[in-house]
Each structure stands twice: as C-alpha cells, then as structure tokens.
Design a protein that fits this description.
- With 114 residues, this protein is of the alpha+beta class.
- The protein is built from 2 helices and 5 strands; from the N terminus they run βαββββα.
- The protein has one domain.
Length: 114
C-alpha cells in the first residue's frame, strides 16, 4: 500500500532546521551525508523548517520513495522540534503521535511503556 508508514521499523527526527524547499533527493542527501544513515532503511525520517508549522516525512518502499508533507492549519500552530543541528533522535510510535498532534515528544505526565 502506498504510504503505509506502519511498515517502518524505526522513526528518526532530524533535529535543527531543514530547508523545506528540498525534495526527495535533497532529503536523501541529508540522511546519507549529514546523518551517515541509509535513506533506504525501513525507517521514517522527519524534517522541519524554521517556521515549525510544517514537516516532511521521508520513507522508502520497495519500489521507491514516499514524501509526506503536513502543515498545521491552526493559526500560530507550531511543532515542538528539537534544534540541536548535529543530532538525530529516534522516536517511538507514541512520540510520533504526540509530535504530529503538536505536542512535545517528551510528555512528563504520560505513563511510560516498559
């Protein structure tokens, strides 16, 4: 199925700012050169620009790449994005859900899975 993100075994948030004009090739280059990771791995790679109101998700399927784009429609809505430029942070599915809902990836009052 096209764009079935549940097929991914890992989720990575690419910290810092990404030029949101980049398309699949540009984002693949970031994953390969900056992060030293394989963009064709069974993973989701999440990118965010300076405005923090939109994200791109890069994903590999057996026959090619998928690029998902989400823009918050809420006025002044912003994603809570880690900004350490030289870092990539692995996420859980719960953290991805929080992030896509506009919440911080660390919820101190949430019950942590063991």
């Amino acid at each position: 199925m096209i764009g079935d993100i549940t097929a991914a075994t890992e989720i990575y948030i690419v910290c810092g700012y990404t030029d949101m004009r980049k398309s699949i090739d540009g984002l693949c280059a970031i994953v390969q050169e900056k992060l030293r990771m394989d963009p064709k791995a069974s993973a989701l790679y999440l990118f965010c620009g300076r405005r923090c109101d939109r994200i791109k998700i890069l994903m590999w399927e057996p026959d090619g790449f998928i690029l998902l784009y989400k823009r918050l429609s809420v006025i002044q809505g912003r994603y809570r994005w880690p900004r350490n430029r030289d870092e990539v942070v692995p996420l859980s599915w719960q953290q991805l859900d929080w992030l896509l809902s506009g919440l911080d990836i660390e919820q101190p009052r949430a019950i942590r899975a063991s």
